[in-house]
Every structure is written in C-alpha cells, then in structure tokens.
Amino acid sequence: MRGIMVCFCNTRLGGWTAGALLFLLALGLRLRGIGAESVWMDDFFSAARLDAPNLLQFLRDQRGDNWEMVPVYYTLEYFWAGLRPGSLAWVRGLSALFGAGAVVWVFLLGRRLGGMIAGCLAGLVMALSPWMVFHGQGLRPYALMLFLSLVSMDALLRWTGSRRAAPLAAHLAANLLMLWSHLFAPLFYLPQGLIVLFARGVSWRDRCLWGGAHALFLLAVLGYVATIKPAPDPDADPPGWGNPWAVVTGGGFFAADNTLTGGLLCADGENLRWAEYNSPTVLRDPAHPRAADLLPLRPAAELALARCYLLTLALMLFFAVRDALRRDEASRAELRKTLFLLAWFLVPVAALFLAAQVWKPHAFQRRYVLYAWPALCLLVGMAAARLRGPARWAHAAAPLAMLAVLALAAASLPMRHDYLSAAGLLREHAATHPVAMTDNWNLMRILRCNDPALPVPVERYLSPEETAARAVETVRAGTGVWVLFVGPESLPQRQALEQTLRNNEIPWDRVILPGMQSLYLYRCDPAAPALVMASSPG
C-alpha cells in the first residue's frame, strides 16, 4: 500500500490531484461567508466608487482616501466588478481566486524544492492560515501581491537555473506589477537581489541587467510617489525586538504583537486577536455556538503554532549548518534551497522592522510584506520532508492541528465591522426609529456604502455633545432615534451619551455588533421604559 501511495504521489496525475484538492480547499475557505463580509474602512475607499463611469474616474475619485495605493489591483477590481455590478461578494471573489491560486503555486514550488510531502504540507499551511484567508477576502491588493510574488520567485528560480530569457521576462513583469500593486514591493527585491548576487552561474552582466531593470522600475514609480500627500500618522512608539524565549516559556508572549519576534511568528492569529480583544461581547455572546468552545483554546493554539514555526526555523538553520560542513554537491544544493527560503522570509520582515525604526513606526504592518510568508509555509514543508519516521509526521501534524483550531475559530467570528447587520437593524425598526445619528463621518459613509438604499437617514453632527443633544431633542418630540459609534476608542463618547440620556430620563438600550472594531448602536425610544441604567463596560 505504501508503495502504491509513493508511486501515485510521484506521478503527474498525483501532482495534478493534490494541486486541485488544495485549490478547492483554499477557495472554499476563502469563499465561505464572503457575502456576509461588510465593507469596512479599507474596503470602502474603492467599493464606494465602483459605479464610476470609467476607469480613470474611478481611480481619481478614490485617490483622496486611498492616497498611498498604486493602481494595478484597483484597475483589475474595477473591470472585475463590471462583470457583475452591485455584488461586493463577487468583487471579493477576485481576491479569493488570487489567494487560492497562490496556495497552488506554493504547492508547486514546495514539490520542486523538497518533494511531494514538502509541497502538500506547505500548501495546507497556507490554505488553512486565518491570516491568508482574511486577506483572501479583502478589497485590497494583498492577495494579488501574494500571487505575483510567487510567480516572481518561481520565475527567478527558473532563470537562475537555466538563464533562459522567458523566465527572466516573467520575473521582471511580475516584479513590475507588484510595484504598481503595493509600494512596499521593493522590500521583496532585497532577498531577490541577494539570490541573484550569489546564484551559481549567473554572470555579472546578468546581475547588472537585473539590477538596472529594478532601478528603472523604482525610478518610474517615483513620479507617482511624488504626487502623494500623506495624511499625518498619530504618534506611536517604534516596534521592539521581542523575546524569542517568551515563545518557549509563554511568558509575555501575547504582549509581543508589535515586535519583530511577534511579527515573524504570530501573524496567523492577528485578525482573530483583533476581533476578540476589541469586541467586548465576543466571549459572552459569540457569533456562532462553536466559537464558545474554540475561543478559550485560541491562546494555547496560537502559542503552540508559534512554537512550531520557531522549531521550523531552528531545524532549517541546523540543516543549513550541517549541509555547509559537507562537501558533496547534493548537500550544497540543499544548503542553497534553505538559504533561499530563509532570505525570502527573514529579509523583508527585517527591512520593514528597520523602516519602522528609522522612518515611520506605523510602517510595521505585517500585511505590507505578506509576500514573505509563503517562504515560512515552504520552510515548514521542507523541514518535515527532511525529517524521518515519526518526527516527520509529528512536525507536519502539529502546525496543521493548531491552524485548524484557529481557522475554525476565525470562521465562527465576524472579522470585519458588521455594518450589514447594523443596516439590517435600522431597516427592521425604520417605522418607529426613522432617524440615525453619529459624530463619526466615516461611520456614516461606510454604513451608506453597505446599504445604499437604507431607508433610515444617518445624520452626522460635529461633536458627541451635539449628537447627544440632538438625540434628546428628537426623542422628546416623540421620534425614536439610533445613535451610532464605532470602535473601542469611542468609550468616552458612549459613556457621555449614556449619562446624558439618564440625566434627561430618555429610555434606551444598546446593541453591540462584534468585529475587528465593534459597532455600538443605541436605540433611544420615547415609548419604552429604560432598559439599561449602568455605565458602558466597553
């Protein structure tokens, strides 16, 4: 039986079958619940303008809000949306396709570098990753950037191995498209430059050609960058180094999110932690019954997964040292593969960390170098492939089990802001509460974007005090009112509103819709008794 399985896995049919199954798994995870994903702030910048009469108008209209974004993804998004106007689930499907395609490309790269086991495990890790699934449902360029990075790396490997023109052209085209998809693409050029510099058989003429082409790419995009008028960032401390030993002991591990160590090892739980920590009702009243069972497991699963990744890096460093000490060509080939993957993963993240130290602390966002994480998936697969016996299967099963827990938990929670449910509540009570109020301009715009035909007008006032005063005045006139807030930072405004309502004996209750930043809906009703009397807990 084992011989049959080995023969099947080593045939072209086995490769096609494994790739197809991985694609279907990845696509299914990314399409699941995609229609229930609300448009939130980052999505809104383009989603609100998709009805523009032409592409240039679309790109120009969104630039005021989306000032830092270059246009390749948004061009594809505009034409893709035109195939099925009005369906944002369809638009999100573009990212789902790119994300699922990236999983297949990781499988193919892993199979070429380390065999079928390495390819399948790398593909499974990437398919299950909640972080990859999250960005595979977004209206942002990250899934496209991820896909292009794999096209680029695959073509680079083929070119350095053959020096043929076709893979070089594909590599350069992918890198140029990446640069015009996200401005942090140059950090991806750094490990590639090291690979070209130290690749065997690549002439200095070819190295200069590669470097000159990328210099021209950067010069070309400088004109666009020069037109950007960035909004000021709030003050923030630069990220810290973190303590890798905390991953072993668990002490202080979850306080290390904004550190280099956390950036390397903790990405898979990022959006899940955000949804849980910023949603005061998520543990008390989870969105799905399964979440009540899975969320208590999240810290242990996330820590165990980080340990798996740390062990993977340690194992691959050990293999690299061992291969360097051997003199045979096979060992040297394995050493080159290991160094290639380590450079791909570590160099962009380290460069981003350095940029946050010397330039802008807010630059340290893991999604900006999403293209580094396929290398981590490949390292997991390669480490398992190089182990033998029970150690191989234990190393393969452990991260997959932890990812399964995190993926199921993420599927049980609303990830993005739940504007669709908010619009549904306003619709349901439109007859008795025909007015909604907020002091948050973006909340008003995004709610309207999620439900353009919302029958309840959202009135925006310039301050929380004015909003509260208008709510009291409207209720006293006999009309029910909604007052809307977003995010944990709105706590002082919510507490002030509640105090104002109590002081004026206005009956009210509150609905909290959890997500990356919870929505708080206060229903002020002139005909009902007061339902809530305590201060807001969160």
Task: Tell me about this structure.
A hairpin with a 5-residue loop joins strand 4 and strand 5. This protein has helices at residues 2-9, 12-31, 41-47, 55-62, 72-82, 88-114, 116-128, 130-135, 142-162, 165-179, 186-198, 204-226, 244-249, 260-265, 270-277, 289-294, 298-325, 329-358, 373-386, 390-411, 419-428, 441-450, 464-476, 491-503; strands at 435-438, 458-460, 481-486, 508-513, 519-524. It starts with a helix and ends in a 14-residue tail after the last strand. It is mainly α and 538 residues long. The protein has 24 helices and 5 strands. It has a 5-stranded mixed sheet, sandwiched between helices. Residues 4-8 and 530-538 have low confidence and may be disordered. It has 2 domains: 18-411, no CATH class; 419-524, Translation Initiation Factor IF3, CATH 3.30.110. Helix 21 (419-428) crosses helix 22 (441-450). It is 63% helix and 5% strand.
Output the number of helix runs: 24
Distance between the termini: 58 Å
Instruction: Specify the structural class.
Output: mainly alpha
How do the SSEs run, as a string of H and E? HHHHHHHHHHHHHHHHHHHHHEHEHEHEE
Largest sheet: 5 strands, mixed
Shape: globular
User: Rg to the nearest angstrom?
Assistant: 25 Å
Q: What is the helical fraction, as a range of percent?
A: 55-70%
Strand arrangement, largest sheet? 2-1-3-5-4
Strand content: under 5%
Structurally, the number of domains stands at 2
Q: Uncertain regions: pLDDT < 50 for 5+ in a row?
A: 4-8, 530-538
How many beta strands in the DSSP annotation? Answer: 5
**Average pLDDT number:** 91
